[in-house]
# Entry
Amino acid sequence: MDEMDRRQFIKTLSLVLGAAAVTGTVPALAEEGKAGKAKSSGAQEVYEVFALRYAGPFDMKLAKALNQTGWEENISINYYIWAIRNKDGETTLVDTGTGPTLARELKLKGFVPPEQLVARLGVKREEVTKVIMTHMHFDHVGGMENFPQLYPNATFYVQKSEYDFWVNNPISRRPPFKRSRYDLGNKGLTDLAGGQRLVMLDGDRVIGPDMELLLVPGHSPGLQGVLLNTAKGSAVVASDSAHIARSFRDDMPSSIIADMVTWLKSYDKLRARAPIENLFPGHDALMLSNYPKVAENITKLA
# Structure
């Protein structure tokens, strides 16, 4: 993809993901202090969950985030990675964001290298033991340019169906999907293939105490979320299962679709595992504004 195409896609994606947060129409993301706690799972491990904004805000049309509904409304979105930490400081990162090469190419607004945000949270590189790839779109996989070197103790997790589509399936290079590809990020995963640092999954998998990866395709062929126990009860870092939290409430995914029927079934699965207020979406601006600030561009979700 040439530079102008990619810049236009950024503008389109921003339109796709942002409108509801600005208009105040994202009530599914709980205001701090008002979110009801989910029932305790009785689990022993209790995790903290943080949202780390590495770029944004970007303006876009609500209809891009809410499947053709709201072309007259504008919203703002952010680009995030997430950090999950246990009581001993062991840290799991969810997604890798955008790496330095693509960030320069796109001239991403408000870009902060994701590893700087992780350090800002007080996490040492050797404390990162897992990196979960929710899906392989450019704004989630791009950091694979340098994450394996930055976090040498980390094991990386991706769904096999996601990896196979973006690495091996020629359909992923056709126009509707090509604009979401990022080959340098994909290479970071293929370089790990066949070794012990990359785990490819076929569906749901428990990967730690009270931490489970959930296959929830629809937006992408093998998207996965992270189910875990928190002080608020069961929660899911759902990434782009929804770009804004309103989608979970309204049962209306975004306009970037691999399989809509499968996507709606994924919503049923997510809502059965955690309350809506504890389903954290991929790009909602309210994750930065409606939760306690921990450091610049970092909030605590649970």
Notes: The longest strand covers residues 48-61. Confidence is low (pLDDT under 50) at residues 1-41. The first helix runs from residue 3 to 23. The radius of gyration is 17 Å.
